[in-house]
Design brief:
The strands form four sheets. Strands 9-8-7-12-13 form a five-stranded mixed sheet. By secondary structure, the chain is α+β, with helices and mostly antiparallel strands. The protein starts with a helix and ends with a helix. The protein contains 13 helices and 13 strands. Strand 12 and strand 13 form a beta hairpin. Helix 2 runs parallel beside helix 4 and helix 3 packs antiparallel against helix 4. Helices cover 42% and strands 16% of the residues. The protein has three domains: 96 residues, no CATH class; 69 residues, 2-Layer Sandwich (CRO Repressor), CATH 3.30.240.20; 149 residues, Glutaredoxin, CATH 3.40.30.
Amino acid sequence: MKWLLELAGGTGGLGWVAVKAVLMFAATIVGLRLGERRTLAQLGAFDFAVAVAIGAIIGRTVTASSASFATGAVALVTLLAAHRLVAYARRHNRMARLIDHRPRVLVAKGKIQDRELGRAGLTAADVYALLRQQGVDDLQQVGYLLYETRGTTTLIGTDSEPGPLMRDGLSAAGYRHVAKPAERHVADTPKVPPGTCPTRYRAFPMSLLYPGDAFPELTLTVPGGTTVTVPEAFAGQFAVVLFYRGAWCPYCNGQLRAFQRASATLADAGVQVVALSVDDEAATAGLIAKHGLTFPVGFGADARAVAGLTGAFVNPDPVYLQSTGFVLGPAGKVVVSVYSSGAIGRLVPEDVAGLVRYVREHTATSA
């Protein structure tokens, strides 16, 4: 029995060890609760240093008979106060740069940045593991992989443009040449229900048609099998080419009905109209009959092919052309183009008639 007491170091001090342990635990909880919440968050370099020091102080105070609770408590409070001061100093950019690791770009445009890996203390295998965790199985899918100050990673794919927050991170990592995304149209959008406006698009460069561009040759098949080739069929005349979403779209119905009602006004202005969609022949014939349309309405369009030629938006599933309109001059060149990414935003007959009159008058005056 005596040897057990010797092994325990005697029984006289065990009670005080237990008391100091409880007191130090309570003091630590109170100190952490009163301190910055970030103390308990994912550790930065100075957070880690404070955490290790706190552990050492608690262990020393509890187990060393020569260390009083008061000594340990003062040391603990001092460390927590210093931590709070450092956390406050980090609000200033210069101090933050001294205290924190800078972000690192581990992958840029599908290529591993070996120098940055070395500075971060990582290997290519570490990067591959990080990418696999984010569902990436090919480096070519990676636009940028940013290794953040806290050791987490931020991924942006090659099919996306860096947004403002990502550009800030890349700039902090030394990639200040990353420009703001250029304005562009897209040919692919996430799946959305018919009749709704997509709210997010995947970037895909398009060939837009600008005023003065020659309109590409399109051959439309109308119900009954007749074909109309644009712009050849309207050579020497002004023309309106309308892409509509489908017979199911109420906005498209309204637009086509409006152009039919304005047929006399447009004819007086010397404007021809043609429309096109991906609908089948039966749906197109039904739409023509419903509104008594007298201008050619094509069916069965290849949405991707038409988008590639004209820059129109395309809904991916179900596939259809978004509302697009062109006013063509007598030479088959674009006078104006109107692109819509969803249900609204389209040509109206009154604007077309007014525009054509203006162009005719302006041309006559110039001549």
